């Protein structure tokens, strides 16, 4: 089996997700002694290719026309490589980049695709993929028919492989720039004003309520805990009312409705308007000094105590990992 | 002097030619008035006819009480109301007097009497007639004078127009010149027993003192008589084109239709919508005739604006302006290109600012219903897909999940965990149904109200039951947001369930549920006796079924909910309950029917804005200033709005429902 | 020249409903579920309508692929303001590849300038159909759009990505998939839905489109992820983190 992993990178190094995807690819390929290759595309990507080479063989398609990650072009090139290299499985880490580029590549390659895969198993020669459906309420097992298969995998589904002692080879790929479509232009990237993801998109949301006294406390505790998870911060209406947080952080019926994998409610009592905004979260953790706070009735895990003690300890323990 | 000789010649000193000219002018004035009135009336006829008109008996009673008795002036603006009563009564009496003179004149002609030999306008009748008329004239002077003086105050809520000067000035002139003419007539006709017309006599005396003789009075009288006549006929002709028209439109409105019960709305079925293609008020022609009349009954006094909590909170809503903006569109009513009312004439933001508190409806002396107009326009917005955001998502959740938060129906009994709360299936021989409502089912804070209520019901051995998981939102918010069909669907489901279990009596702690079950549900075929838990508990205490220990003597303040106090007139029961528990009540400045809205009604609970823009924050300030430690509420909307609002000010104010207060004093007695 | 906007929509269970796997382990128990237009597709319909308000000559056509029950959702879209609807009669559910086959054929026949659709369906959560379609038509794509600034021959699209807002320019015809922050869809009420009855829903069969279904994704099992709240009270942070480690895949 030949597995090709499309690298997502920042111009210098692979992004963490791609490393995990390489680990997943290795788990897939080792069954029949197959190979894993990493495809690095871009303009000046030698550094990225070197980074990827630490994990195995690399194909590098470097050309000015690929300077920006435009799906139109990258998918075309990727599909071309898949065909010419007889790739069985095209893989990438689940991300907006992968959905955009690999999604289009999937369309060019026959549509045997599964997104957000969390695992796989083999059964009578078939590969059965696990993926979440209904916002994670259900795990589906699917079999894909066709070749190649296109998979985007959740970064948490595997671990990055150990870097090899001997880096893999880096083979250039010919880019026929003139044959690439050009109806899309790249106009720029506005990094987020906050370095944090948006509360409606983040996988982890840490939300603060009346228990917090100042904006600094909010930033330090709620923000600090969110950062450990690369998550987003949210707020109950009480803090917005008190002027301690911005309106756009409000989670609730009249604010934002979120459904992250993990919702940590810090010092939030749990009024129904707030609940309406986060009840579909996969896992809910509540931290509150009031043992009778309604939030505990909807939480999976709760700790009664002073958030000013508990949250710093959580941050400390998580950082230590 | 013998009383029989008291009389005066009608049309005295007015010769046949001037009389003829007068009649001609009067006819012209009358025709002008009729023509202008018709222009207005034919616009009204474009509205929808309605069934809810008064019978003749009801009309007469309404005319007596509401029109002549000025019963709708109410308690606001006492000085202006007194001045208006004065002016109105004076003018009405003078008009009646003039009519009587006309009757006398015609009768006299028919009977072929000489001009100094009237049919009835003499003697005792005259002795009473004259002073009454003079008093009436004084009343008009007083009233008009007061209103003219008030104009010098810059009262922003009263809308003054230039034509008002002519009206008020004209009326003042009529009163003054009336006395002048009377005085001059007394001099020139040397009327016997002048002092029955005591004001006229005074004027005559003054005139004589400055040298007016009988001879000079002849011409002066004629001149002033004509001035008086011209101004009077001018005002008559101008009635339909000035603010005076309110008397006609207002009179029709107040007497022609039964007084609207607060908290009710006109229903419309989907079949009607399908048949007419009309839902809500997109154009003036979608309004009922009664409503078109009301647009012209409005005198722009601004009482409604003064009472409006949204306006007080700085929202772009003034009920008066809504009415006047619609009224301004009346000339366009025949056109095909009239602007759409909801959105163009009245902005969407204005329409969504309303909390449906009904203060504007209650306070209007002319019987105008701005709330009905607003809900009508909201219906139009809903029907034309012009609603989005949290309003849209809440309506969607109501329609799909039967509660405003989209929470599962099977969690509706979670609040009762650990308590014995029988459902209608478990206790089919219940005496009263306890309607729990969405807030107590799902909002942990409001659950405390229900849990306290259940304890009280058990303590009093009341055989009650709840609908359980089959209970859905009453749909009250949806209806007031203009979504009649989500309301209809919820109501139909609830009514079916209630009928299945033969429910006749319902007790609820939520005034919005109360109002809906009582006033909205008849439209869906549900007729129940609905009681607020404060009334029910007060009754139980009275009957001795609930024994309470008055030693729990805390000082509390009580916030009257709009839907309890104003819309449903329940003011005493909550206080009885609190007193029974031993609490002493420090009344807030605005209490009882004059309560201040918390801002949660009319669907606004689901519309949230920032704390600095929220309707009802002045109430929060009022409560804070009163220095209350415990605020007792009796409505889940108030509980949330006030609780959240107070929490931004001081953390130490306790917000509890009156059931929780009562339960405490129950438990203390063992 | 008419500017046709094609808006494919999907009928999905209401996200407030509780999703339970049926005893057969292959389907979701839909007996108690309400169905709605996929929220991201509603955003697409809304955006198409706004485009119509901005430009001359825009026709908004919504498409649904499924059985007769689909017509409710199509009527909602028509109630919002779409001009007409097309229902492709086909078995549900179809995987993204087959959805894109059908849409591609429709696009070839109807020649829209723009296909506006939700970035993903909230039942399947695949987020593939739009990209498949764009690839097969050879049209430019702009996925996860949070803002669309259209001009005569194309648009500038702001896209929500993991690293910030990326702006791309595309030329028409194109495929744009919508993200949550693009707009707030308008509410369709019963009167609007009734009025929308006058608007046509055209039914097309797979035979007429000359399409055969070629399944690429075969569902072999559904497993319920426990939705009951554990409600566990923990005493220490260590215990809490242990629980999270064991019960989520975030670590």
Annotation keywords:
heterotrimer, B: 670 residues, mainly alpha, four-stranded parallel beta sheet, 28 helices, 4% strand, C: 251 residues, alpha/beta, nine-stranded mixed beta sheet, two-stranded antiparallel ribbon, globular
Can you walk through the features of this model?
The complex is a heterotrimer of chains A (321), B (670) and C (251). Chain A has 9 helices and 16 strands. By secondary structure, chain A is of the alpha/beta class. Chain A folds into 2 domains: 2-179, HUPs (Rossmann fold, 3-Layer(aba) Sandwich); 204-320, 3-Layer(aba) Sandwich (Rossmann fold), CATH 3.40.50. In chain A, strand 1 (2-6), helix 1 and strand 2 (35-42) form a beta-alpha-beta unit. Chain B has helices at 16-44, 56-68, 78-110, 123-150, 162-189, 198-209, 214-238, 245-256, 270-276, 289-297, 303-307, 309-312, 319-327, 348-352, 359-363, 370-383, 389-401, 437-442, 444-459, 476-481, 484-500, 511-520, 533-542, 562-566, 572-580, 617-625, 636-647, 658-668, and strands at 432-435, 464-465, 505-508, 529-532, 555-558, 584-585, 630-633, 654-657. Chain B has a 4-stranded parallel sheet. In chain B, strand 7, helix 27 (636-647) and strand 8 (654-657) form a beta-alpha-beta unit. In chain B, helix 5 (162-189) packs antiparallel against helix 7. The longest helix of chain B has 33 residues, at 78-110. The model of chain B has no long low-confidence stretch (mean pLDDT 91). In chain C, helix 3 packs across helix 4 (129-137). Helices cover 29% and strands 31% of the residues of chain C. Chain C has 7 helices and 13 strands. The relative contact order of chain C is 0.18. The N and C termini of chain C lie far apart (55 Å). Chains A and C meet through helix 3, helix 4, strand 5, strand 7 and strand 8 of A and helix 3, helix 4, strand 7, strand 8 and strand 9 of C.
The proportion of residues forming helix of chain B, as a percent range, comes to: 40-55%
Biggest interface, which chains? A-C, 84 and 79 residues
Detail the poorly predicted runs of chain C: none
What is the residue-mean pLDDT of chain C, rounded to a whole number? 93
| Anisotropy-based shape of chain B | elongated
Q: Quote the beta fraction of chain C.
A: 25-35%
Largest sheet of chain C: 9 strands, mixed
The tally of helices of chain B reads 28
Beta-strand portion of chain B reads under 5%
């Amino acid at each position: 089996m030949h597995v090709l992993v499309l690298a997502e990178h920042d111009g210098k190094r692979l992004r963490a997700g791609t490393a995990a995807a390489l680990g997943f690819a290795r788990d897939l390929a080792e069954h029949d002694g197959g190979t894993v290759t990493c495809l690095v595309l871009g303009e000046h990507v030698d550094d990225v290719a070197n980074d990827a080479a630490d994990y195995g063989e690399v194909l590098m398609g470097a050309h000015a026309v690929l300077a920006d990650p435009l799906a139109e072009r990258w998918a075309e090139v990727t599909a071309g490589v898949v065909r010419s290299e007889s790739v069985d499985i095209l893989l990438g880490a689940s991300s907006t980049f992968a959905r955009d580029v690999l999604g289009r590549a999937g369309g060019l390659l026959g549509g045997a695709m599964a997104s957000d895969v969390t695992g796989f198993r083999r059964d009578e020669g078939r590969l059965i993929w696990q993926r979440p459906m209904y916002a994670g309420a259900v795990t589906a097992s699917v079999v894909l028919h066709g070749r190649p298969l296109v998979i985007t995998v959740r970064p948490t589904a595997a671990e990055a492989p150990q870097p090899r002692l001997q880096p893999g080879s880096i083979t250039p790929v010919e880019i026929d720039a003139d044959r690439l479509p050009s109806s899309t232009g790249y106009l720029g990237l506005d990094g987020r004003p906050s370095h944090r993801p948006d509360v409606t998109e983040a996988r982890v949301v840490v939300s603060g309520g009346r228990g917090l006294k100042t904006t600094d406390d909010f930033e330090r505790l709620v923000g600090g805990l969110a950062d450990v998870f690369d998550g987003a911060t949210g707020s109950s209406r009480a803090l917005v009312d008190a002027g301690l947080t911005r309106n756009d952080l409000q989670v609730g019926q009249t604010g934002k409705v979120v459904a992250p994998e993990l919702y940590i409610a810090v010092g939030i009592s749990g009024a129904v308007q707030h609940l309406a905004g986060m009840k579909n979260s996969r896992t809910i953790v509540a931290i509150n000094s009031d043992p009778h706070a309604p939030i505990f009735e909807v939480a999976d895990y709760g700790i009664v105590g002073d958030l000013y003690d508990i949250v710093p300890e959580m941050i400390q323990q998580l950082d230590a990992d | 002097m013998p009383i029989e000789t008291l009389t005066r010649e009608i049309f005295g000193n007015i010769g046949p030619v001037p009389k003829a000219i007068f009649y001609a002018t009067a006819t012209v004035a009358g025709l002008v008035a009729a023509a202008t009135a018709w222009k207005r009336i034919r616009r009204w006829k474009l509205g929808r006819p309605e069934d809810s008109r008064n019978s003749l008996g009801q009309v007469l009673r309404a005319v007596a009480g509401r029109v002549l008795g000025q019963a709708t002036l109410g308690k606001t603006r006492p000085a202006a109301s007194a001045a208006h009563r004065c002016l109105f009564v004076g003018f009405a009496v003078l008009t009646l007097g003039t009519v009587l003179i006309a009757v006398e004149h015609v009768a006299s002609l028919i009977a072929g009497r000489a001009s100094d030999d009237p049919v009835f306008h003499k003697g005792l009748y005259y002795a009473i007639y004259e002073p009454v008329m003079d008093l009436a004239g004084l009343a008009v002077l007083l009233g008009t004078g007061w209103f003219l003086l008030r104009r010098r105050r810059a009262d922003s809520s009263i809308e003054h127009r230039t034509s008002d000067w002519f009206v008020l000035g004209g009326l003042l002139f009529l009163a003054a010149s009336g006395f002048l003419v009377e005085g001059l007539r007394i001099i020139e006709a040397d009327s016997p027993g002048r002092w029955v017309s005591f004001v006229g006599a005074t004027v005559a005396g003054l005139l004589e003192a400055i040298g007016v003789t009988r001879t000079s009075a002849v011409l002066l009288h004629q001149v002033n008589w004509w001035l008086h006549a011209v101004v009077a006929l001018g005002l008559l002709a101008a009635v339909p084109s000035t603010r005076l028209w309110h008397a006609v439109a207002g009179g029709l409105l107040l007497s022609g239709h039964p007084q609207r019960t607060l908290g009710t709305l006109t229903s419309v079925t989907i079949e009607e919508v399908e048949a007419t293609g009309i839902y809500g008020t997109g154009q003036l022609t979608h309004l009922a005739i009664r409503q078109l009349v009301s647009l012209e009954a409005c005198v722009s006094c601004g009482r409604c604006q003064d009472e409006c909590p949204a306006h007080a909170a700085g929202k772009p809503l003034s009920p008066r302006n809504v009415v006047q903006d619609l009224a301004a569109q009346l000339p366009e009513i025949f056109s095909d290109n009239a602007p759409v009312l909801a959105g163009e004439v009245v902005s969407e933001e204005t329409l969504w600012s309303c909390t449906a508190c009904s203060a504007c409806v209650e306070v209007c002396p002319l019987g105008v219903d701005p709330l009905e107009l607003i809900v009508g326009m909201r219906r139009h917005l809903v029907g034309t897909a012009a609603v989005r955001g949290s309003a849209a998502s809440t309506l969607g959740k109501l329609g799909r999940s039967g509660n405003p938060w989209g929470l599962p129906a099977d969690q509706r009994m979670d609040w009762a965990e650990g308590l014995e709360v029988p459902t209608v299936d478990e206790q089919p021989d219940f005496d009263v149904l306890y309607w729990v409502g969405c807030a107590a089912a799902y909002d942990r804070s409001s659950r405390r109200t229900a849990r306290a209520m259940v304890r009280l019901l058990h303590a009093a051995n009341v055989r009650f039951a709840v609908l359980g998981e089959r209970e859905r939102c009453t749909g009250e918010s949806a209806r007031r947001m203009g979504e009649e069909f989500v309301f209809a669907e919820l109501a139909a489901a609830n009514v079916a369930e209630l009928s299945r279990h033969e429910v006749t009596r319902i007790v609820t702690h939520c005034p919005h549920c109360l109002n809906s079950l009582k006033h909205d549900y008849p439209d869906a075929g549900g007729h129940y006796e609905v009681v607020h838990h404060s009334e029910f508990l007060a009754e139980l205490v009275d009957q001795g079924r609930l024994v309470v220990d008055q030693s729990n003597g805390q000082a509390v303040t009580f916030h009257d909910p709009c839907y309890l106090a104003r819309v449903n007139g329940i003011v005493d029961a909550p206080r009885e309950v609190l007193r029974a528990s031993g609490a002493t009540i420090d009344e807030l400045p605005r209490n009882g029917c004059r309560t201040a809205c918390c801002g949660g009604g009319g669907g606004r609970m689901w519309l949230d804005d920032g704390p600095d823009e929220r309707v009802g924050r002045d109430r929060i300030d009022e409560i804070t200033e009163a220095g209350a430690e415990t605020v007792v509420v009796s409505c889940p909307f108030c509980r949330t709005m006030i609780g959240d609002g107070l929490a931004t000010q001081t953390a130490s104010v306790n917000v509890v429902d009156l059931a929780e207060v009562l339960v405490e004093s129950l438990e203390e007695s063992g | 020249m008419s500017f046709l906007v094609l808006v494919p929509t999907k009928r999905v269970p209401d996200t407030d409903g509780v999703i339970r796997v049926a005893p057969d382990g292959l389907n979701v128990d839909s007996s108690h579920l309400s169905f709605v237009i996929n929220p991201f597709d509603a955003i697409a319909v809304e955006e198409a309508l706004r485009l119509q308000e901005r430009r001359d000559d825009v026709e908004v056509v919504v498409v649904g692929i499924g059985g007769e029950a689909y017509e409710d959702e199509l009527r909602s879209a028509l109630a919002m303001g779409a001009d007409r609807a097309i229902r492709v009669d086909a078995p549900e559910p179809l995987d993204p590849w087959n959805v894109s086959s059908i849409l591609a054929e429709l696009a070839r026949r109807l020649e829209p300038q723009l296909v506006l659709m939700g970035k993903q369906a909230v039942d399947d959560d695949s987020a593939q159909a739009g990209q498949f379609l764009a690839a097969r038509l050879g049209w430019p794509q702009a996925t996860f759009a949070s803002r669309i600034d259209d001009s005569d021959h194309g648009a500038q699209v702001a896209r929500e990505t993991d690293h910030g807002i990326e702006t791309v320019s595309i030329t028409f015809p194109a495929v744009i998939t919508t993200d949550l922050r693009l707009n707030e869809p308008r509410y369709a009420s019963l009167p609007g839905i009734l009025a929308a009855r006058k608007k046509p829903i055209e039914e097309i069969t797979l035979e007429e489109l000359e399409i055969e279904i070629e399944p690429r994704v075969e569902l072999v099992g559904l497993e319920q992820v426990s939705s009951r709240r554990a409600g566990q009270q923990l005493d220490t942070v260590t215990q809490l983190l242990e629980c999270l480690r064991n019960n989520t895949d975030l670590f």
